[in-house]
């Protein structure tokens, strides 16, 4: 017999909600942010200007464009650019609180950080997505220039404008997100099997947290309506 995919999909959805917004795990028993590695932790001699850098996490990947001289441009949810113009405050390493508020407010910034701050202790893959785009790869200088032109405040959307959309536009000329595609497929799987009330609630929470969409109050399919268009 075929196993019910809903519990697995619901679990994956919850994990995606926490990880796709780049929340950094805190050490056990600590209330402080985990500090990034010290400068020089990564060997940047193998990086070239315009390279697409990937930092795999447990269930998601964070992306950036290398600009040279230990600098990486990357898109991150952040509330500060919408409430202050103080560049010194904005340039400080983004905390979890800033990330969460940025996701809720759907605001972000394309910022330039050191490789250490960008990767935050994770391993780095270089141009790993090139194999998916083949002849669409732009010149390294064009990719870097595109990234530099986009530095600054921007809107944030899990579905339409996240860190993966940013780098694929810069390096391949087309903003796409394979992580978002997988996320939507998970949501579709949950919606198609409406036997699980828990799954319906999780979908509603996803719409509120990630997309800022108000839930429906119609029972018993509470939280469902916004995602019905994705069921196809």
TrEMBL record:
<dbReference type="GO" id="GO:0005770">
    <property type="term" value="C:late endosome"/>
</dbReference>
<feature type="transmembrane region" description="Helical">
    <location>
        <begin position="197"/>
        <end position="230"/>
    </location>
</feature>
<protein>
    <recommendedName>
        <fullName>Lecithin retinol acyltransferase</fullName>
        <ecNumber>2.3.1.135</ecNumber>
    </recommendedName>
</protein>
<keyword id="KW-0472">Membrane</keyword>
<keyword id="KW-0844">Vision</keyword>
<dbReference type="InterPro" id="IPR042288">
    <property type="entry name" value="LRAT"/>
</dbReference>
<keyword id="KW-0732">Signal</keyword>
<dbReference type="GO" id="GO:0047173">
    <property type="term" value="F:phosphatidylcholine-retinol O-acyltransferase activity"/>
</dbReference>
<dbReference type="GO" id="GO:0005791">
    <property type="term" value="C:rough endoplasmic reticulum"/>
</dbReference>
<keyword id="KW-0256">Endoplasmic reticulum</keyword>
<keyword id="KW-0963">Cytoplasm</keyword>
<dbReference type="InterPro" id="IPR007053">
    <property type="entry name" value="LRAT_dom"/>
</dbReference>
<dbReference type="GO" id="GO:0005789">
    <property type="term" value="C:endoplasmic reticulum membrane"/>
</dbReference>
<dbReference type="GO" id="GO:0042572">
    <property type="term" value="P:retinol metabolic process"/>
</dbReference>
<keyword id="KW-0808">Transferase</keyword>
<dbReference type="Pfam" id="PF04970">
    <property type="entry name" value="LRAT"/>
</dbReference>
<keyword id="KW-0967">Endosome</keyword>
<comment type="pathway">
    <text>Cofactor metabolism; retinol metabolism.</text>
</comment>
<keyword id="KW-0443">Lipid metabolism</keyword>
<keyword id="KW-1133">Transmembrane helix</keyword>
<dbReference type="GO" id="GO:0006776">
    <property type="term" value="P:vitamin A metabolic process"/>
</dbReference>
<dbReference type="GO" id="GO:0007601">
    <property type="term" value="P:visual perception"/>
</dbReference>
<keyword id="KW-0716">Sensory transduction</keyword>
<comment type="function">
    <text>Transfers the acyl group from the sn-1 position of phosphatidylcholine to all-trans retinol, producing all-trans retinyl esters. Retinyl esters are storage forms of vitamin A. LRAT plays a critical role in vision. It provides the all-trans retinyl ester substrates for the isomerohydrolase which processes the esters into 11-cis-retinol in the retinal pigment epithelium; due to a membrane-associated alcohol dehydrogenase, 11 cis-retinol is oxidized and converted into 11-cis-retinaldehyde which is the chromophore for rhodopsin and the cone photopigments.</text>
</comment>
<feature type="active site" description="Acyl-thioester intermediate">
    <location>
        <position position="163"/>
    </location>
</feature>
<feature type="domain" description="LRAT">
    <location>
        <begin position="52"/>
        <end position="179"/>
    </location>
</feature>
<keyword id="KW-0012">Acyltransferase</keyword>
<dbReference type="GO" id="GO:0048471">
    <property type="term" value="C:perinuclear region of cytoplasm"/>
</dbReference>
<keyword id="KW-0812">Transmembrane</keyword>
<feature type="signal peptide">
    <location>
        <begin position="1"/>
        <end position="28"/>
    </location>
</feature>
<comment type="similarity">
    <text>Belongs to the H-rev107 family.</text>
</comment>
């Amino acid at each position: 017999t075929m196993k019910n995919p809903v519990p697995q999909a619901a679990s994956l959805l919850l994990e995606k909600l926490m990880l796709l917004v780049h929340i950094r795990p805190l050490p056990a028993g600590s209330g402080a942010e985990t500090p990034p590695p010290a400068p020089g932790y990564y060997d940047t001699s193998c990086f070239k200007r315009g390279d697409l850098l990937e930092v795999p996490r447990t269930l998601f990947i964070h992306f950036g464009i290398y600009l040279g001289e230990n600098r990486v441009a990357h898109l991150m949810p952040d509330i500060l650019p919408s409430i202050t113009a103080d560049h010194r405050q904005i340039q400080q390493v983004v905390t979890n609180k800033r990330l969460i508020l940025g996701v809720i407010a759907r605001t972000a910034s394309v910022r330039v950080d050191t490789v250490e701050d960008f990767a935050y202790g994770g391993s780095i893959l270089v141009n790993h997505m090139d194999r998916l785009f083949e002849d669409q790869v732009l010149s390294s200088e064009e990719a870097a220039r595109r990234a530099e032109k986009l530095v600054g405040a921007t809107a944030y959307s899990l579905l339409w404008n996240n860190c993966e959309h940013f780098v694929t536009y810069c390096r391949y000329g087309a903003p796409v997100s394979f992580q978002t595609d997988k996320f939507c497929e998970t949501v579709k799987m949950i919606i198609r099997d409406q036997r699980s009330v828990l799954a319906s609630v999780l979908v509603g929470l996803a719409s509120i947290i990630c997309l800022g969409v108000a839930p429906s109050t119609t029972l018993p399919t509470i939280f469902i309506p916004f995602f019905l268009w994705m069921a196809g």
